[in-house]
Design a protein that fits this description.
Length: 600
């Protein structure tokens, strides 16, 4: 098991730099509090020796007042240090969460393809919270304990050097034990963080796929699988708990044994008048002040070890660089006409598996191009390259003659509207979902976009209408309703280039008719690339590209004499096969009374 490197810990602590005033203030009041702690045994000594044994009444009264004042001062210092420390650490957690979210948003699709959502959730919540504790209470306690040990040790030497020597022999034993415990607990902590992430990931998958689990009656199997993940976590947690339960009794045994030696040896000095009773009581109080923080030292080191493991997991993500980013010489893409050209484009999700090879075609401004092909042919890969969700491994893609890698990502994507096959809606209002790509849009613009997408009719029937909350993933809406909201989102953005990924494949005939009408209006004057599964989609196209095994197998182009469909039926056996397998059944359902010639 790789240990968490010190650099991660120091980098986590460096996050406190913007809040150094809070940190400095809390450390100053901790030192003041420690000073009050160190004075308490001396006041007790004076009360016993001068007041109780010496019969000086004022010594008792003054001592009592001093003890109350010191207690009040310690309480005030504890309050201030807690407030300032929490202010600093909570701000650190706030900053790290923001950085983590920003990093996740900047990383390319390839990262998200390979990383489980639950793993990221675990890091963004649990690991960030441990960093918060490290930069707050843990370091504050470490400073408090360290300075208190030094101050108490000096006071003990000044009070009685012989007893101090005996006591200070015990301290290294406790310190070495704490260090040993910390080294043992750190790998366990890293294991636990990973097991927690696995469990979170499993839970997230079950919640996201709850409908499928129930549909296939897999509740019991999924419960057993979750229990297996939970058991793995429990085993590691119990291992850590055993370490803790072994450590604490051993520390207490050593501490109690040391206290016993001091009381026996100090008692003999009191009886021999070499030490006063007040000094012995004061010394015993110092022992308590010394041994308590030494025992807590192990707990602090454990917390630091856990935070170190969490820091490693967080900075592993924060240190990543996206393989899709702005070129150093990239410039904003200005107003475009929308000519898209693929020039010998090759693409692979990994080095050993090319999914596209030698893809070349041109789409003129305002032209509509349909992509057809079987499952895994590469259609989705083609459209994913245009907004640079991925970059090709060979060749280039240009818009109006400009290599898209030379344009800034934001400006490129500002010109592209996308309706994905898997419609994504957010836990927000209907208006906020439609205006996601254009948050400043007026209500009139939102309503007009919804009307164009034939979504207005069902929206006004929802509770709250456009201000209604549709819930996570829009689970209360039908597939067709979610799809129309997604189309309304693209309509409102009004891009020059439109990408439609199977956007009407899961709706009924009536809904498809509504959507087709909306898309006809939307695509006027726009460069449109459509992954087609229905013949009704093909008939809208000016050009049809047949993708097979990552290559362009056939092209159908609209002419004055024939449609792309007729041309491909005449020239491409692969298209005829796709038509028979994918398009003809849909056309029969979607337009039962239509003749093939009319459809084409």
């Amino acid at each position: 098991m790789k240990k968490a490197k010190p650099k991660y810990l120091s980098r986590a602590l460096a996050c406190l730099k913007p809040y150094w005033r809070f940190v400095l203030g809390s450390y100053i009041v901790v030192l003041v509090s420690n000073g009050a702690n160190i004075l308490i045994p001396r006041v007790i000594r004076d009360i016993i020796d001068n007041g109780i044994r010496g019969g000086i009444r004022n010594a008792i009264i003054i001592g009592a007042i001093l003890l109350v004042a010191l207690a009040f001062g310690r309480g005030l210092c504890t309050f201030l240090s807690g407030i300032w420390t929490e202010s600093a650490s909570q701000n650190v957690a706030f900053d790290i969460r923001n950085r983590f979210h920003e990093k996740l948003q900047s990383l390319s699709f390839s990262f998200h393809d390979e990383t489980e959502t639950g793993q990221l959730l675990s890091r963004s919540v649990g690991d960030v919270d441990r960093i918060r504790f490290l930069t707050g209470r843990a370091i504050l306690h470490l400073v408090q304990i360290s300075t208190l040990i030094v101050g108490v040790a000096i006071s003990m030497v000044l009070l009685n050097s012989e007893l101090a020597l005996i006591t200070l022999i015990i301290v290294p034993i406790l310190g070495v034990s704490a260090w040993w415990f910390s080294n043992k607990i750190r790998p366990l902590s890293l294991h636990i963080r990973r097991r927690e992430a696995d469990l979170t990931s499993k839970l997230e998958q079950n919640l996201r796929g709850s409908r499928i689990v129930k549909a296939f009656a897999r509740e019991k199997a999924e419960y057993n699988e979750f229990r297996r993940f939970n058991t793995r976590l429990l085993d590691k947690q119990l291992g850590e708990a055993r370490m803790r339960t072994l450590y604490m009794p051993l520390m207490q045994l050593v501490a109690r044994f040391g206290t016993l030696i001091i009381l026996v040896y100090g008692g003999r000095q009191v009886m021999g008048d070499a030490l006063t009773l007040g000094e012995l009581v004061a010394f015993s109080t110092y022992i308590t002040q010394l041994l308590m923080p030494v025992r807590r030292f192990g707990w602090i080191l454990t917390s630091i070890a856990q935070a170190s493991a969490s820091a490693e997991r967080l900075f592993e993500i924060l240190d990543l660089t996206s393989d899709i980013k702005d070129d150093p010489d990239a410039t904003p893409l200005g107003k475009i006409e929308g000519r898209v050209v693929f020039d010998e484009v090759g693409f692979a999700y990994n080095r050993n598996n090319r999914v596209l090879e030698g893809i070349s075609f041109a789409i003129e401004p305002g032209e509509r191009v349909a992509l057809l092909g079987g499952t895994g042919s590469g259609k989705s890969s083609v459209i994913s390259l245009i907004p640079r969700f991925y970059d090709p491994v060979s060749g280039k893609i240009t818009i109006d003659g400009i290599d898209i890698r030379k344009a800034t990502l934001k400006s490129l994507r500002d010109h592209i509207g996308i309706v994905l096959q898997d419609t994504t809606l957010f836990a927000a209002t209907v208006k906020e979902n439609i205006a996601f790509g254009r948050p400043s849009a007026s209500m009139d613009d939102v309503v007009n976009a919804a009307k164009a997408a034939r979504a207005h009719e069902f929206i006004v029937e929802l509770p709250g209408e456009y201000e209604g909350y549709i819930g996570e993933r829009g689970v209360t809406l039908s597939g067709g309703q979610k799809q129309r909201l997604s189309i309304a989102r693209a309509i409102l953005k009004n891009p020059e280039i439109l990408i439609l990924d199977d956007s009407t494949s899961s709706v009924d005939t009536e809904t498809e008719s509504f959507i087709q009408d909306a898309l006809e209006k939307l695509m006027v004057g726009k460069t449109s690339i459509i992954i087609a599964q229905r013949l009704s989609t093909v008939r809208m196209a000016d050009k049809v590209l047949i993708i097979d095994k990552g290559k362009i197998a056939a092209v159908g182009t609209k002419t004055d004499d024939e449609s792309p469909h007729d041309q491909l039926m005449r020239t491409s056996s692969l298209y005829a096969e796709i038509f028979a397998r994918q398009l003809r059944p849909d056309s029969l359902v979607g337009a039962r009374s239509a003749e093939e010639g009319r459809i084409s």
